[in-house]
Design brief:
Blueprint lengths: L8 E4 L2 H9 L3 E4 L15 E2 L24 E13 L2 E4 L14 E9 L3 E13 L4 E10 L3 H4 L3 E11 L2 E3 L2 E3 L4 H10 L3 H4 L21
Parallel strand pairs: 1-2, 2-3
Antiparallel strand pairs: 4-5, 4-9, 6-7, 6-9, 7-8, 10-11
């Protein structure tokens, strides 16, 4: 390319790619594909949990122009499972709608409970690592629902927007959704670009539940 390696920025998902870029004298942003081996990516200049966290302006590049305020439209993500103790037990799916490993952060979209219609939903998604395993954690918050509706229910979701990365402190992950996240999601989902997927095959034949209260 005829460019000084010191002026190059590489975005990589593999350990070997990170090592090669660093050996060449380039700056590297890693988005690990091996969630169980996050520590191996520490040689990168910066490690992200999702490519959506990348901010080009921090590297002297033009900022992305597709944000709508503090909300980023995304290709719809589909996820379903049963809610237990506030968390979604994801149904294993290796098909085209499988949730990618790099999905991490606070997302929003539409959710259908098995018996209570459609709700606006805000979701914290991340990875939890202990001494033996690494597993995905999904924590949904339904706007306009109450606790008794959720526990033990089958939940189907289509996520259409992203708002922010998770807060990580001392290797711990904070999946908690803030009141600001709920407000942002509720307002964004009233916009046509985010409301469109409410009417897809995942949520048709159900009734939209008006925002009457927020799930604490």
């Amino acid at each position: 390319m005829g460019i000084d390696a010191a002026h190059c920025l590489v975005i990589e998902d593999s350990v070997i790619g990170v090592m090669a870029a660093k050996a060449a004298g380039m700056k590297v942003v890693a988005v690990p594909s091996l969630k169980a081996q996050m520590d191996r990516y520490s040689i990168a200049d910066y490690v992200l949990h999702s490519l959506l966290e990348f901010r080009p302006e921090l590297w002297g590049l033009p900022a992305f122009g597709d944000w709508v305020g503090n909300a980023l439209p995304i290709e719809p993500l589909y996820v379903k499972g049963q809610v237990q103790k506030g968390f979604l037990c994801e149904v294993a799916d290796d098909g085209p709608n499988a949730l990618p490993d790099q999905v991490s952060g606070i997302y929003f979209g539409w959710a259908k409970l098995s018996t209570h219609g459609i709700f606006k939903v805000v979701v914290g998604i991340g990875w939890q690592k202990d001494s033996c395993t690494t597993k995905r954690i999904i924590k949904p918050y339904l706007i306009g629902a109450v606790d008794k509706y959720i526990s033990g229910q089958q939940l189907e979701m289509v996520l259409v927007g992203y708002s922010r990365e998770l807060i990580h402190e001392a290797s711990k992950m904070d999946l908690n959704v803030l009141e600001e996240d709920k407000l942002l999601a509720s307002e964004a989902l009233d916009l046509p670009m985010f409301a469109y997927d409410m009417n897809n095959s995942l949520v048709d034949e159900a009734t939209l539940v008006e925002d009457k209260c927020s799930l604490e």
